């Protein structure tokens, strides 16, 4: 479970009127749950559509550098930050008595729900966090119902052969739809770079990638287009989930779960057709 650090709003304490965020994940929680006039600035990656699910919505808010200087000038009532962000910035904010709320990297759906609830209470809108949690629960229920249709091993593969480890939010999502993360077969608990030979030899049932048609714009992406990968894992053996849906937890989580559920339903249908075909 996530332990609160800093100032948490309660019924007896008024919600902060001026809130800043310097972490991409807390950026998105703030956009989804706070009133627009409460947000005085968001982190440097909030507008990056490759990473942030709410990049377009972030355009309306000031962009912060993530350093302490602009935060000291703004003097917000509270700053939302990642626990593993730049330590010097966080220490300087504390030294200047600017309240700081630190968030861990969520590794399970329950941890995401706890962060949603915490943010809703912090900004004074618990009803919004309740609604978001209800949407997560609804998508998770569908995912669990889908889980009985097919079970398999999935390798989440990114540029340069980066493999998402088993102790991650993505693994929690996979488990919810009845899949297992085969990164553990490669010895990755938290993630790491795997060679082409190791990826092919591990023989997962499916690859999970972020793009349907990757372009070899650099050597990092070129690995995904290697003939050994292309031949062993054509489109029918891939699940496509954009990075923006799994990097953080929040409003994007129901979308990620629904896409995984859709993929499993399609796979189970194909398997049913393949099984039935010889009987005709």
UniProtKB/TrEMBL annotation:
PANTHER family reported for this sequence: MOLYBDATE-BINDING PROTEIN MOLA (PTHR30535:SF34), VITAMIN B12-BINDING PROTEIN (PTHR30535)
Pfam families hit by this protein: Peripla_BP_2
Protein name: ABC transporter substrate-binding protein
InterPro entries: ABC_Transporter_SBP, ABC_transptr_periplasmic_BD
Residue span(s) of domain Fe/B12 periplasmic-binding: 18-268
Domain of life: Bacteria
